[in-house]
Amino acid sequence: MMLTVDPRSALPPFEQLRAQILRLINEGSLAPETRLPTVRKLAADLALAPNTVARAYRELELNGVIETRGRHGTFVCSHEDPIVHQAQKAAADYVHQIRSLGLGDEAARSLLESALEVRSTDLGMP
Amino acid sequence: MSTDVGVSWVLLGMFALLAASVAAASQFRRFRQSQMQRFWDRVGLPMGTDEINTSVARRLHRSDTAQWLGGLAGTLVAATVLLLTPTPGPIFGFSWLVVLPAFIIGMSTFDVALALRDSLFTKREDSPRMARAAAVDAADYMSPWRRATAPLLLALAVALDVTVLAMGAAGKVNGGAFLQSMALPFLVLALVVATGSKLVSQRMLQQPQPVSDPLELAWDDALRADTFRKLGQLSAGLAWLALAAAGLGLAEAIDPSHTSSLWSPYGELAISWGFIAIVMFFGYGGAYNYFRHRLWTNTAFAATTQGPAPSTPYQP
Fold it and tell me: What is the domain range of residue A34?
């Protein structure tokens, strides 16, 4: 369960960090409720600016993969599968936007089905 | 000068001589080599590259020097106490309740100060940097029993002190004699050291570990675990002495004239053996490599980093 930052990589360090943490969580190496190192500690270990680590954590938090619990620290979210959680969040956002536009559930379903059909046709899926 | 004071000065001289001679011996190459070999045996990690070998040897050497200089400083503090105290009491009490605590507190303070400001490996520009993805805590470096020793002994010392105070208030024992004993000052000292150790442990966990590969991190963990072990031993040792001082205070409260069998040499022997048992408990039985079972289970280090016994002694 190691994180590596390569200063010679074309990927910015925050993206290297974000992608690795996400991969470790998806693989199950970082189990739900695991506490992550503090921003300051991780930044010092990897010789990065604290803002770089904070940005990676912030993006993971926005995706619902990790959560900050005040001074207790940052933890891996306890959802079974962070990908499913992200999909649920996207679906909830969609419903919220449809409702705010004054459209009903039927319209929402038909728009979603149309979008799914268009996407499937684009990708050549059955 | 009374016999007790004379013997106390001899004892202080012996402690000072011990600290100075070990600090001096640690400057010799052969001493450092055997020390490195012993630590390597206890930790059980592959030595890996020459760079790791040199860094670990340098840290062990500096740690050793700091410890014994700290012991020397502690002895000086005890000597000051002896100078300022016209009647330091019986030699047994002075040696166990002043000299020994001052010595071990001095050793641990200097060593921990070094651990807090020293970094085992240095950052190399342009090389990949590595860090652990999950946070660690003190439980990853010291076994539950070792972590529980100091709090358990302190709780017993507090319970005994409170019981004797209550008995003194009820007139069942001589409360005045108990208050004049070393029980309460020692309890306060043990509590302060235990709290200080806890705070230092928290600080240690936030110390950066700049490394480039897992084996370097494992060695950094080994030295960190060693500092935790020393802190635990210091807290437990002082907690034991606080309990012993409470026991001596109780004996004082029951028999201020020192005429009963409470003052047999067996009690003093029990204190000595108890302290030795704590030192052994924190020195053997997986005390050095517990972290490996917690943090490096099933980790096979790369074949290229496997190495034999330490081969390149550190040259200061």
Answer: 13-76
DSSP state, B213? S
Say if A72 falls within a structural domain: yes
- A24 and A57 in a single domain? The answer is yes
| Cross-chain Cβ contact A42/B131 below 8 Å | yes
Answer whether A8 touches B (CB < 8 Å): yes
- Measured distance CA(B122)–CA(B210) in Å, rounded: 6
Comparing alpha-carbon positions, the chain B residue that sits nearest to A34 is B134
| CA gap B102, B268 in Å, rounded | 19
Q: How far apart are CA B147 and CA B151, in angstroms?
A: 8
My answer on whether A33 and A52 are in the same domain is yes
Residues A62 and A93 in one domain: no
Residue of A nearest to B210 (CA): A45
CB atoms inside a 10 Å sphere around CB B238: 29
Residue in B273, B245, B251 with CA at minimum distance from that of residue B263: B251
Question: What is the chain A residue with the closest CA to B132?
Answer: A2
d(CA B301, CA B210): 18
Which CATH number covers residue A49? Answer: 1.10.10.10
Higher pLDDT, B64 or A86: B64
Measured in whole angstroms, the distance separating CA B104 from the mean position of its chain's CA atoms is 6
ipTM exceeds 0.85, yes or no:
no
**pLDDT tens digits for A76-100?**
987 666 677 677 778 888 888 888 8
Shortest distance between the Cα of B148 and any Cα of chain A, in A, equals 23
DSSP character at residue B125: T
